[in-house]
Amino acid sequence: MSAHVQDVFMLFGDSITQGAWEPGYTGIGQRLSHVYARRLDVLNRGYSGYNTEWGLPVLEQCLAKKDAVNVPKIRVLTIWFGANDACIKPSPQHVPLEKFKDNLRRMVDLVHSPSSPFYSPDTRVILITAPPVNTIKRKADLESRDPPVELDRLFDVTKAYAEAVLEIAREKDVGVVDAWAPMWEGSGRDERELSKYLGDGLHLTEAGYKIVYDSLIQVIAEKYPDVHFERLGFAFTPWKDIDWESPAGSLDLKKP
């Protein structure tokens, strides 16, 4: 018997997604799990170090076939890549910009194309841009390692990959969270001040995740209000509504 009876909110991406539940601070994972409790199961499908080229075949394995039965439905799917794809050569994580955009298209099409074996038109797809990179802190972090590592990311290159995500979201008419702009503006357009959002120059602090969470909830409210947590009922009956005399019949899973 499967333990996953509720429908799900799946977060798919790289280490920035994987770290969304990291202990010590409140990331986007905890916030979403809290507001969607008893409504949707929030799943962490973040893979540290992955780019879109490696993520694409993994996403196929995370999705249920369209004719599958008795499996939870993915109601919301966030796709958050770009930070690793934007690595500069000779990094093995580098994915050329046009290939990156094509991979994002293919990820969206896995869910929204009628010809896809994973076609799920009711799944709400939301793309998230890479945040800015603080090359000052990133360089210091890499140089402190044994042996030292050369800087693997550039500010303007990462920005181009963030802008590409916005482009693909418009093209595919899916929701998008711009993680770049509010962090850059919030830092006063000063790369050194990005440290409030990026602890090591690349990965988000609690403040960084809070910006993404707030933007994500706003996108859901405006573009996909049917899956906003305030619009979703509990998957199982609130205790006060249980038929206390004959509870079994009132305790069935409620599917939308």
Please write out the topology:
Elements: E1 8-13, H1 15-18, H2 28-35, E2 41-46, H3 52-62, E3 74-80, H4 97-112, E4 124-128, H5 135-143, H6 155-172, E5 175-177, H7 180-186, H8 206-223
Parallel strand pairs: 1-2, 1-3, 3-4, 4-5
Helix pairs in contact: 3-4, 4-6
Brief descriptors of the model:
single chain; 256 residues; Rossmann fold; SGNH_hydro_sf; hydrolase
Please tell me about this protein's structure.
The chain is of the alpha/beta class and 256 residues long. It has one domain (8-250): Rossmann fold (3-Layer(aba) Sandwich), CATH 3.40.50. It has 8 helices and 5 strands; from the N terminus they run βααβαβαβααβαα. It has helices at residues 15-18, 28-35, 52-62, 97-112, 135-143, 155-172, 180-186, 206-223, and strands at 8-13, 41-46, 74-80, 124-128, 175-177. It has a 5-stranded parallel sheet, with helices on both faces. α3 packs parallel to α4 and α4 packs parallel to α6 (155-172). The model has no long low-confidence stretch (mean pLDDT 93).
Biggest sheet features: 5 strands, parallel
Strand content: 5-15%
Structural domains: how many: 1
Structural class: alpha/beta
What is the CATH superfamily label? SGNH hydrolase
Query: Radius of gyration, Cα only, in angstroms?
Result: 20 Å
**What global shape is seen?**
globular
- Spatial gap, N to C terminus: 21 Å
Q: Quick one: CATH class? A: Alpha Beta
Low-confidence region ranges = none
Order of helices and strands: EHHEHEHEHHEHH
Mean pLDDT: 93
Q: In summary, what is this structure?
A:
With 256 residues, the protein is an alpha/beta fold.
